[in-house]
Amino acid sequence: MSFHGQKVLPAARKMKDFEKLLKSKYTYIVCLDTHISQLKFMISMANERNKKVLVHLDLINGLKANEYAVDFLAQEMKLAGIISTRSNCIIRAKKRNMIAVQRLFLLDSLALETSYKVIERAQPDYLEVLPGIMPEIIKEVRLQAQIPIIAGGLIRTKENVMQALEAGAEAVTTSNPELWI
């Protein structure tokens, strides 16, 4: 599984940015912040343009991030996949044949060790490592987990993008339109 060579996964925080991405060259796009009443319309517009949307489940206002939400999104929205910090949601997304991205906030050594246990339990398709500006940690997690890495968070420059990719990340998520290169 891959993003068909797409190295930047542009992430929209606002409807204006989402609409911009619908007209872009990108096949895979990330929806970070939205509310449940907008989501069906957004996904419908994306599907009409052959875009594959990954939704950050934990950031959908009006929808509790749990297994039932994953079922709803799989049945009603026809999403490509979800991003979540919740391993129970990742497990359900995989059962629903959605791309399952486990988001990891690696703040310190304890968070890293705890993350390895979560990864082992959930077996996501991808790991989104935050912050994504830690090349050494990207390398370590990739080797330890044997799961493809997406780098995200605090990616501010083209150099940050290149460093993450050179460290072994398969792709980089960014909400900075200047990096949607």
Automatic annotation (TrEMBL):
It comes from the Bacteria. This is Glycerol uptake operon antiterminator regulatory protein. Regulates expression of the glpD operon. In the presence of glycerol 3-phosphate (G3P) causes antitermination of transcription of glpD at the inverted repeat of the leader region to enhance its transcription. Binds and stabilizes glpD leader mRNA. The keyword Transcription applies. Keywords: Glycerol metabolism, RNA-binding, Transcription, Transcription regulation. Gene3D superfamilies: Aldolase class I. GO terms for biological process: glycerol metabolic process; positive regulation of DNA-templated transcription. GO terms for molecular function: RNA binding; transcription antitermination factor activity, RNA binding. Pfam families: G3P_antiterm.
